[in-house]
Amino acid sequence: MTRSHAHAADPRRAVGWIGLGRMGLPMATHLVKAGIPVVAWNRSPKEAPEGTVRLAASPAEAASAGIVFTMLADDAATEAVLPAILEGLPEGGIHVAMSTLGVSFSRSLAERHAARGQRFVAAPVFGRPDAAQAAKLRIVVAGPPAAKEAVRPFLARLGEAIFDVGEEPHLAHAVKLGGNFLIAGMLEALSEAYVFVDKLGVSREAFYEVLTAFFRSPVYDNYGRILLERRFDPPGFQLRLGLKDVRLIARAADEALVPLPLAALLLDRYREAAANGLAEEDWTAILKRVEAAAGLVR
After folding, report:
1. Pick from 50, 83, 234, 284: CA 20 to 30 A from residue 185's CA?
2. What is the CATH architecture assignment of 174-293?
3. What CATH code is assigned to 3-167?
């Protein structure tokens, strides 16, 4: 057994973490609270709250722990640190990507790690920053079986459910994009429904009560309330990131020759919203564009 494999099987040993944003920091902090030392690096210099992670001087130092988690904005941010991860991660080490990434990019990550005798696990999450704070994320995982077992004790500290979807890492990112496609479509439909009933004289609050009683979904409950209360700023998930995800969905569908007419509509909606100054607001702010099209000003 190599040193790195022994390390990977022991959840009490230090792990690396790259990305300390609104999702990454609380996730890494949960590991620390569980008694797992975390050596972390963030692209933008920042002070780590006392009692949380130990800051690394570089991504390579974080990766040298033997298991390294990345929670970064997109493919480009992950690609930017990948050379350092490949250099710092020991043979047999594991890179766990918890961001929403493109399917083809996820494939390439697995290939590049395999070429260096390293392992790659995809573990993207469903949940906003409040879910990350409460360790209530839903985690979709795919990768080599032994690598998944090695990182499962860490993942269990971050969420309330883990869904294993196979041995090829890109499968987890396909599931995550499929889920985000459903959420984006729901946001469009719910925004249109709110505006529809509003213009016909029904209060949005009354509609929300009927909606949540009928659908009984935590996703509709949560997003329906965000839209109702117009909690667009500060954002839980920025609209520009929603646009990024819809682009990834459309790209993956194009590569697989899967017609997704709704994805084209959503891409136009998020592109239009970003062009009208909403890129840094929550992705639920598409409601403003639906309202504007219907002649409603809020």
Report:
1. 234
2. Orthogonal Bundle (1.10)
3. 3.40.50.720
Contacts of residue 205, Cβ cutoff 8 Å, sequence gap at least 6 = 228
Asked if 37 and 14 touch (Cβ cutoff 8 Å), the reply is yes
Strand 54-55's sheet: what is its strand order? 54-55, 38-41, 15-18, 67-70, 94-97, 119-122
Whole-number Å distance between alpha carbons of 192 and 190: 5
The residues that are catalytic are 176
For the sheet containing 125-126, what is the strand order?
A: 125-126, 137-141, 159-164
The single residue listed with the structure tokens 């570089």 is 58
233-283 confidence digits (pLDDT tens): 999 999 999 999 999 999 999 999 999 999 999 999 999 999 999 999 999
- β-pairing, 137-141 with 159-164? parallel
Q: Letter for the amino acid at 146?
A: A
Write the single-letter amino acid at 92. Answer: G
The answer to whether 252 touches 177, Cβ cutoff 8 Å, is: yes
What are the contacts of 42-49 at 24+ separation with CB within 8 A?
A: 42/18, 43/19, 43/77, 43/80, 43/81, 46/20, 48/20, 49/25
Inter-residue contact 245 to 100 (CB < 8 Å): yes
Measuring CA to CA, how many Å separate 178 from each of 51, 65, 265, 268? 37, 32, 16, 18
pTM: 0.92
Whether 103 contacts 255, CB under 8 Å: yes
Domains of the chain, residue spans: 3-167, 174-293
Asked if 193 contacts 207 with a C-beta cutoff of 8 angstroms, the reply is yes
